[in-house]
UniProtKB/TrEMBL annotation:
The keyword S-adenosyl-L-methionine does not apply. Pfam families: Dyp_perox_C (PF20628), Dyp_perox_N (PF04261). One of its GO terms (cellular component) is cytosol. It comes from Paractinoplanes rishiriensis. Its main location: other. GO terms for biological process: iron import into cell. This is Deferrochelatase. Binds 1 heme b (iron(II)-protoporphyrin IX) group non-covalently per subunit. Involved in the recovery of exogenous heme iron. Extracts iron from heme while preserving the protoporphyrin ring intact. Its EC number is 1.11.1.-.
Length: 413
């Protein structure tokens, strides 16, 4: 079939290509709909996008794109092509119908080939739309911009670099094999050439949050367990309240979706490593070993923000990270986090360029991420050891319902 499709492409201008090509495409679509994926494949189609409540995989390749075309129809066609490629790759297949090694030698393959022989590795691809895509005069979307997609404020201490922030579109690729995640982004960028260009990207390893009750709590590069109180996929009532956009929130095309905030947080590793264990635990508000809140013995023991020590001081200091991030200190605000560690080499002075690539999904950033981050930015003792250098905000619509649906269909209709 691959060779046949190459032959069809060669018939352009004969009048036969449209008929034969259409038949081949329909056949491929029907076949794709009936194929049962490998055991480690995450279903692509569904009411919500995979990669949000999916149990967090070990590897990340996150990329933000600028839309370089002014042609709305061309952008929509690319989103259709992206969706078809994503459905194939998450099932462990090549990005295109022809694949990496079929066809004729004179034409480039429609898959780059570095994932040949690799399983799906629980690959998920999650797409989002940035605020600037809705700017008046671009694609006629200004009236469809969600109020919740309001630009994030400048937080105290921010050292944001515009070159690695923002973007018109984003794709979050998560997998248990880094090559599978990189392959997915590479092929979407290839498909989108001339329509989008890569604005910035980030590789991540070692998830810093668990998104399922079946997962152990991981550790960040400061050596502490991270995300103990994170929302979990099994907490459906809490997810409805804090994660998914509900009917009536507006706009309708976002109902069932979620809003994504990213922050690249550089950790001053060498400074932290010279800090005493006791001070580290006081700054975080948890023990480094078990991960219990100060004054408690187990990791999941409920935090007592009212407890005091023998001197009458709060057991969990007023500037401790866990206190300032706690829902009780932020009018009940909660998010689903699925961040990753990163190490981007050194800064040329012998210091690691490393830290946390923070990822959080929520129903409305204005009532979730923004108040929590303001609280942390103003008061957190950990600010001495971290620098926020990148930020992003994206509207992630609900899932692709089937082979006839595609990313952004309801937005552009």
């Amino acid at each position: 079939m691959a060779v046949a499709r190459r032959w069809v492409l060669g018939l352009a201008g004969t009048g036969l290509a449209g008929i034969a090509g259409g038949a081949l495409i329909r056949g491929a679509r029907d076949s794709a709909a009936t194929v049962t994926g490998p055991p480690d494949a995450v279903p692509f189609h569904g009411p919500v996008q995979a990669g949000i409540v999916t149990p967090a995989q070990d590897r990340l390749h996150f990329t933000a794109f600028d839309v370089v075309t002014k042609d709305r129809d061309r952008l929509v066609r690319m989103l259709r092509e992206w969706t078809a490629a994503a459905a194939r790759m998450t099932a462990g297949r090549d990005a295109g119908e022809i694949g990496a090694v079929a066809g004729i030698l004179e034409a480039p393959p429609d898959d780059t080939g570095e994932a040949i022989g690799l399983p799906p590795s629980a690959l998920t691809l999650t797409v989002g739309f940035g605020p600037d895509l809705f700017r008046p005069g671009r694609f006629g979307l200004s009236g469809r911009k969600p109020a919740a997609l309001a630009d994030l404020p400048h937080f105290p201490g921010d050292l944001i670099k515009p070159a690695i922030s923002g973007g018109d579109l984003c794709v979050q690729a998560c997998a248990n094999d880094p090559q599978v995640a990189v392959h997915a982004i590479r092929n979407l960028a290839r498909i989108g050439m001339g329509v989008v260009s890569v604005r910035w990207s980030q590789l991540g390893f070692g998830r810093t949050s668990s998104t399922s009750a079946t997962q152990d709590t991981p550790r960040n590069l400061f050596g502490f367990k991270d995300g103990t109180r994170n929302l979990k996929a099994e907490e459906t009532d809490l997810l409805r309240q804090h994660l998914w956009v509900q009917p009536g929130d507006g706009p309708e095309w976002m109902t069932g979706g979620s809003y994504l905030v990213t922050r690249k947080v550089r950790m001053l590793i060498e400074t932290w490593d010279r800090t005493s264990l006791g001070e580290q635990e006081t700054i975080v508000g948890r023990t480094k070993g078990v991960g219990a809140a100060l004054g408690r013995s187990g990791e999941f023991d409920e935090i007592d923000l009212t407890a005091r020590n023998g001197d009458g001081d709060p057991t969990i200091p007023v500037d401790a990270h866990v206190r300032l991030a706690h829902p009780d200190e932020n009018r009940g605000a909660r998010m689903l986090r699925r961040g990753y560690n990163f190490v981007d080499g050194s800064d040329g002075l012998g210091r690691l360029d490393a830290g946390l690539f923070f990822i959080a999904y929520q129903r409305d950033p204005r009532t979730a991420f923004v108040p929590v981050q303001l609280n942390l930015a103003r008061l957190d003792a950990m600010n001495e050891y971290v620098r926020h250098v990148s930020t992003g905000l994206f509207a992630c619509p609900p899932g692709v319902t089937g082979p006839d649906d595609h990313w952004g269909r309801e937005l552009f209709n």
